[in-house]
Amino acid sequence: MNYFEVFGLPRLLSLDLKALEKTFHELSRKYHPDYFTTAPAEERQRALQMTAALNDAYRTLKHPVRRVEHLLEIEGFKPDGSKVPKSFLMEVFEINEQLEEVKAGSASKEQIAALRREIQERAQSFDQQLQLAADEWDKVSASGPANPTDEQKKRQLSRLTEILSESSYIRNLQRELEETS
Amino acid sequence: MPRIVGIDLGTTNSLVAIIENGTPRVIPGADGNNLVPSVVYFEEGGNVLVGNPARAKMIEKPKNTIFSIKRFMGKGLADVRDDLALLPFEVAPSSDSILRLKIFGREYTPPQISSFILRELKRNAEAALGEEIVNAVITVPAYFNDAQRQATKDAGRIAGLDVLRIVNEPTAASLAYGLQERRQGIIAVYDFGGGTFDISILKLSEGIFEVLSTNGDTHLGGDDIDEQLIRFVLADLKLTENTPALPAIRAAARKTKEDLSSAETAELAVETLAYRRPITRAEFDELIDPIVERTLKSCRLALQDAGLQPNSVDEVVMVGGSTRIPLVRSRVQAVFGRVPHTDLNPDEVVALGAAVQADILAGGKRDMLLLDVTPLSLGIETMGGVMSKIIPRNSTIPASASERFTTFVDGQTNVKVHVLQGERELVQDCRSLAQFDLKGIPPMPAGLPLIEVKFLIDADGILSVSAQEQRTGQYQSVAVKPTYGLTDDEVERMILDSFEHAETDIEAREVIEARNEAERVLRATAKSLERTEFSQLPEEEQDGITMAADHLRDAVKVPDHRAIREATERLDQATHHLAEIIMNATIAEKLKDKRVREVE
After folding, report:
1. What residues of B are in the A interface, CB distance below 8 Å?
2. Highest CATH level, class, for B4-224+286-371
3. Is B169 a catalytic residue?
4. What is the pTM of this model?
5. What is the pLDDT of residues B96-112, one digit of tens each?
6. Domain B378-485, CATH 1.10.1270.20 — does that match?
7. Which tens digits make up the pLDDT trace of B553-573?
8. Among A43, B109, B185, B557, who pairs with A39 as Cys (CB 3.0-4.6 Å)?
9. Distance from CA of B261 to the nearest CA of A (A)
């Protein structure tokens, strides 16, 4: 299912969250099962399906990373871990070693704070890269040449895939650190 | 649309409410109290008492007076072993993934026991409204999992109710609050009840009540605070959990806890043990501090999940009896940096909100809409015992997700799916929800079949599953066996049982009453047979009386209340004339006595 379509939106990554929420509330008032309690079973079932789809779409689109993941999915792209550059993997490996120390309880408070800072900086850098790549996608799809070539589209989608794959490592490290400390 | 009532099925108390002229109100029980204690007393012979009359039996008949049954809803024996240590109930040996209590040789699951409470509320509503009630909205703690929600729905069905919606308690409270205060903005509902704790963060805008996040503990409430005090007394007296004085100690603990909500010092007194000990609020606060701290941790997590700082919350609404505790109020105030709103009656606001939701469902209020969330992530077991999340916690419900499955072996026709709820990485740390087999997959080389399984969480927060093989378009039969729940067949059987139970109850009571009446008439007849007036009656009439009496003596031997009443009636008729004569004679004698005395 294309969640952009549920909201009547084009496949663009920059979204007005306030407008998205407004449409979400309007559509909820239209389809919510609460308003179909007395309706025949078929209509009740339809209300349930419609609202579930609406909620799934809203949950996905309002979240910047899930939104990109969804775009890749409907464009037929899969995040591919094998493409992650070696140098990046080495960095992740290093951070992971420090994390193991934290887990073992042998890290000082200062070390933990420094690690948290480092991971956070990397996460922020990925957020920025994702934002840039998302803007590029929008430019190519919407305001670029009248008909973006498949080649141009593909290049942008690959770039988004790369960023998501790499940032997922950092996000996992971040979550692990929060769970340990 | 027939009327829909709102029910708060609480750990300690339960209430039923309706909307009248746009305003919710609680319907009191037969004794005039709005709160019906969630206590069920089983009499030998099958009679059942609910509410205050049952509560009065707690100390005297601890084994067959069941309270706090809500804590066992949707739970297996292993989950509740610790609780049972402090409870006097007898657990049936057949308990496994569903707890069963044994009472006078019969086994009862928690939904069955809860159904007695629901039936009482149903009766109260029917008596007050003069109509049959079949539709209800029932509230549950927001943090209840799938099995606990399903168990609540089952209880409703067993009680003869069509449960149109399961609503989360803090959300229901927000509806009642929103209706009254007409506020907009971010509110936090802190709901600390008898057995459970919930925190929900909501955004209120133009009649839409959108839950942003929820957190809690379905095993944290006033009962745990009582337990702290109970253990304190046990340690003081060097008694073990097995002491027969436990029910009396529990009653004393509750009283002391309540006293300390307004007084700085109170006395812990157990009369039967000749135990008296003053306790200060400071001592009490120290005892319960770890419990209160756990609720605050949930508050912080809920804020984090909502992506909010404590100071972005416009109002904190307090719900549940345990929010009367001063330490709870002051600590909540410290976390959110504002004085919590305590104007609503913390015992009634959830039931009132349930009535508001019932009114929305009945088509009464179209301007209000509740958008609630699922409290726990839904996932499936993947390779290596890892839980893969498919619907994250705090997703607005209804919510759905699809997952594709395939085969690992050529010609494989079955695929096993294990559904879980929880936040942890490993399957063993999550709550097993159900297992099912995808059956009848067309035999194909391994990895070729594509079965799309759709998981749907409905507006009650309850899961359903459907599956379709993508290549053939064939729908698969998915019979989900709940891990901690009753199957449909079991619920059906319990519904039948409850009818039988109810009918035999009434039948038995009728027989007892008819026999009592018969005995009374027979005793009176025996007395009058000794009087001279009897021997003065025509022989025909004398025979008539003795025959009717013999007939009644035979009738009472058979437990048929209609036959007994009929025979009683006949004897009454037969002795009618005699009774009149005796009555006149007695009056005459009395008057004679009086005259004699007057003369003297």
Report:
1. 1, 164-165, 205-206, 208, 210, 357, 360-363, 366, 369-371, 392, 395-401, 456-459
2. alpha beta
3. yes
4. 0.81
5. 888 999 999 889 999 99
6. no
7. 998 888 788 889 899 999 989
8. A43
9. 36
